[in-house]
UniProtKB/TrEMBL annotation:
Gene3D superfamilies: 1.20.1280.50, Ribonuclease Inhibitor
Source superkingdom: Eukaryota
Pfam family, one: F-box-like
Organism name: Frankliniella occidentalis (Western flower thrips)
Gene (UniProt): LOC127750116
Signal peptide: none
Lineage, broadest ranks: Eukaryota, Metazoa, Ecdysozoa, Arthropoda, Hexapoda
SMART domains xref list: FBOX
Designated name of the protein: Uncharacterized protein LOC127750116
Boundaries of every F-box domain copy: 1-46
Length: 474
């Protein structure tokens, strides 16, 4: 059977996997494929970012004129020569991603495009990235258009690092509450608009993410604390954030902890009162002793109530530093007995003391611990080390994950090979080297219970993790 003789639904299903240039090429094959290439079912999962590239991507004009719909339409404004196309297009996008250059022309083009996409009825998400200096009047008009757009469920407003948006006028009105996810860079020029979005969409917001916050108004914290459906919040820990503890629906919290006492005190109050959390991520930036461990004991504030429901805890340091600059490990060891619901733990730093402290009595619910990357050495040697043998023997239900640059000694016949590799056991680690993966290191998982035992973890080796059985008798 020839390709063109296949049923319509089969052809449409296959064409959904083609990229935009290939769909345009189908129009030149035969009339049947030309007709199918313009069907909405073929295009509704497509993403397109405008501009003619070296790989032959069609220009925005052709897509806006011929495609009936898109999942994502990304454009850098203004588009030279395509103004008429994006103003009068019938191509309905579900998500609109606009990189808006400086100048009034780009801001006006973005405003016009958002209005035309709203009229087409599929628009559910807007992502605005601002470059350069913004004209206050046109920027205010654009943000008011965004505020009045009906049916949005996601909104991202991300000025570039070089762009400092001027203060914009807060819209005088808004559409009905619909936005569920809001991401924004909180700067002096965007804070009032961000607060406006929080207030206008308080009834529906479920996820809020703030970046590069250098200041925070009490109003912002109060708005977050009063949201009835907010489930996830990502933001820096800044003074005043403790008001968010009033949000009873909040379950996932990610805090970027700056090295200052006021921020740490605010974060401690928030964690002490937030007994509703089930997942917490603390991101630090300790480096070269400059932070003096400020905020390192936040996990003790989380545990202080004795009522913590946190099931997943991640504590990481985003700056490469020496092993002595992970001051949060000792407070974590002290906090473990007061975190009875903790099931998944991820940390970085030198993990030996932490692993030795994990016992069924101190962490009864803990089933998975990820210790990040080994500082150096052979993973096979570490697996046979005292620390791993001790923690796996004491916790038969525990699963341990780690990353290593070397799974085994490179030359197992060399005189410098470690004792573990010389034994020739754990063939799974040798298979790591034999596979094509591992140029950037290896992600490994360890478990000690019987492979056939009933377990909630899937010990399935794939590109993300290779599991190794470590019998307790070893």
């Amino acid at each position: 059977m020839e390709l063109t003789q296949l049923p319509v639904d089969v052809l449409v299903m296959a064409m959904q996997f083609l990229d935009v240039p290939s769909l345009f090429a189908c129009r030149l094959v035969c009339k049947r494929l030309a007709d199918l290439a313009l069907r909405a079912d073929v295009w509704r999962h497509q993403g397109f970012r405008g501009g003619r590239d070296a790989d032959g991507t069609p220009c925005a004009c052709a897509v806006l004129r011929l495609a009936p719909c898109l999942r994502v339409l990304g454009l850098r404004l203004p588009i030279r020569g395509c103004r008429r196309a994006y103003a009068s297009t019938s191509c309905a996008a579900e998500v609109l991603t606009l990189q808006v250059a400086e100048g009034r022309t780009a801001l006006q083009a973005a405003q016009q495009l958002i209005r035309s996409q709203e009229a087409l009825g599929r628009l559910r998400g807007i992502r605005l990235v601002f470059d350069g200096v913004l004209a206050p009047t046109e920027a205010s008009a654009l943000l008011e258009t965004v505020a009045l757009t009906t049916g949005l469920t996601t909104l991202d407003m991300l000025p570039s690092y070089e762009c400092e948006p001027p203060p914009v006028a807060v819209p005088s009105s808004t559409s009905s509450s619909s936005i569920k996810r809001f991401r924004c860079e909180l700067r002096r020029g965007t804070l009032d608009f961000a607060n406006f979005v929080l207030a206008a969409h308080s009834a529906t917001l479920e996820k809020v993410e703030f970046y590069t916050v250098s200041f925070l108004k009490r109003l912002t914290s109060n708005l977050l604390g009063g949201m009835p459906n907010l489930r996830e919040l990502k933001c820096p820990a800044l003074p005043g954030l403790e008001a968010v503890a009033a949000c009873e629906s909040l379950r996932v919290l990610e805090l970027r902890v700056p090295p200052d006492q006021r921020s740490a005190a605010s974060a401690a109050k928030l964690l002490q009162a937030s007994v509703q959390l089930t997942e917490l991520r603390l991101n630090y930036m300790f480096h070269f002793g400059g932070a003096d461990g400020v905020g390192a004991d936040l996990v003790l504030a989380l545990a202080s109530s004795g009522r913590s429901r946190v099931q997943a805890l991640t504590i990481e340091n985003f700056v490469v530093c020496s092993e002595d600059e992970y001051p949060y490990l000792q407070p974590l060891i002290r906090a473990l007995p007061s975190l009875p619901a903790l099931q998944r733990l991820k940390v970085d730093g030198k993990p030996h003391r932490l692993l030795r402290a994990i016992r069924p009595a101190t962490a009864p619910a803990l089933r998975s611990v990820d210790v990040g990357a080994l500082a150096y050495g052979c993973a096979h040697e570490w697996v046979h080390g005292v620390t791993v043998r001790t923690v796996m023997s004491a916790n038969p239900s525990l699963h341990m994950k780690f990353a290593a640059s070397e799974a085994v000694c490179r030359d197992i016949y060399a005189c410098s090979v470690c004792n573990a590799c010389a034994r020739g056991c754990h063939r799974e680690l040798l298979e790591c080297v034999a596979s094509e993966h591992g140029a950037d290191g290896y992600n490994l998982g360890l478990f000690s219970h019987e492979p056939t035992a009933d377990c909630s973890h899937r010990h399935f080796t794939d590109d993300n993790c290779r599991w190794v059985h470590v019998p307790q008798s070893r």
